[in-house]
Specification:
alpha+beta; 4 strands; about 200 residues
């Protein structure tokens, strides 16, 4: 009889402990950084609960620099084609604007290649980790659902990009490269002007 009573007490204690755990789960520093990043464009505080959160990949500084070099090489080739088309069509204002873009793209490539050459063994350092998460948050009575959402986060915990598509996650991750954002700020938009 004592064994049955002891088992009943243990079961009741386990049920009581599990029911008391209904409070808000404690977020890791990385999860908290993601919630803060999601909250930046919201009016109120985001009360967020993760359904899943996992690290899925990492990118080294060298790989990120190579990714940016490839992207700027592609843009530079496209800008040369557009420039030549504007010159042939005698669209001088657009040709001048495209020439400015070519000069800035060339400067960015030079800076990236110089930076890559200076990295040495540091090129193997982690620039950021990719995380995949899902969950939901409430902000001012509005529920926000995040299904298969991705975040790029530096080892220091800075969220540098969040996207609903892994394919688009790395479009803004060049920010981890020193000087990258400043040069990007000087690149004009690609809109044509009327001649």
């Amino acid at each position: 009889m004592k064994i049955i009573h002891l088992a009943t007490v243990c079961l009741c204690a386990a049920a009581l402990l599990s029911s008391c755990g209904g409070g808000k789960p404690v977020l890791s520093e990385t999860q908290q950084a993601v919630v803060e990043a999601l909250s930046r464009d919201m009016d109120g505080e985001l009360d967020f609960q993760f359904d899943s959160f996992e690290k899925i990949d990492s990118t080294t500084i060298g790989t990120e620099v190579d990714r940016r070099i490839d992207a700027f090489t592609t843009v530079l080739l496209q800008n040369y084609r557009l420039y030549n088309g504007y010159v042939a069509a005698k669209k001088n204002k657009n040709a001048a604007k495209k020439q400015q873009s070519i000069e800035l793209d060339t400067e960015m490539l030079r800076m990236l290649q110089e930076y890559k050459g200076s990295l040495g063994a540091d090129s193997l350092n982690i620039a950021y980790y990719d995380y995949k998460f899902s969950g939901q948050g409430k902000e001012n009575g509005v529920t926000h659902i995040y299904k298969e959402t991705y975040a790029a986060i530096t080892p220091e915990g800075e969220v540098i990009a969040v996207s609903s598509s892994l394919k688009n996650l790395h479009t803004a991750t060049g920010k981890v490269i020193p000087g990258y954002s400043a040069i990007l700020a000087g690149i004009p938009d690609d809109e044509e002007v009327e001649e």
